[in-house]
Write a structure and sequence with these properties.
Oligomer: single chain
Largest sheet: 4 strands, antiparallel
Order of helices and strands: EEEEEEEEEEEEEEEH
Number of helices: 1
Length: 196
Amino acid sequence: MASVAVDADGFVVAVRGGDSTFRLVRVHPEGALTVGPVLPHTRRQQHRMFLGGTPLRLFLGEHAAPVHEDLTLGEPRTLPKGLMSAGQVGPFVWFTDHPPDGTGRSGWWPLPGPVTYDRARQFWLFTLLDGQSLEPVTSTPIFATRPPVTIDEHGTVWVIADGIRPIPDTTMQWPNELDIAALLDVARNHTTDSAE
């Protein structure tokens, strides 16, 4: 299994066959399966494959191809660069990569242009893309290449990367660490005060 994504009709899973080719499988809520055809150009792929976006797309390197109802792929869209580590969270596609320096063929993408940042400690750039347009929403430095990522009911995206951190709305702003110990202390004190 290479990737799993939520779809309107259940889940879509990218699976590798015994001949090293991939195909998509739709898993319906009642457990029924729909198996798609072998995907073209997946036998010796060098990039990590993943599913994400709305409409659902298959990402492979710098290409994002829409997934049709019959689990075939539509015409791929080319992104400015290949995505190293990526996934889906709520309405967003997220990925991590090296921060750009403006010299590569993708320029400053996904950043809006030249930026300065503290280079004292190596970090990875965590970026959220709009799930429909695939345009960058925000990028922030983190200290993990494949962080666990989730979204809460308020739309805040959280990562576990050198602590639990909410992704800020402002590009290249360092995310604050959620102080779990302080929250537990507040909860403990509130429970103690309520019991008295």
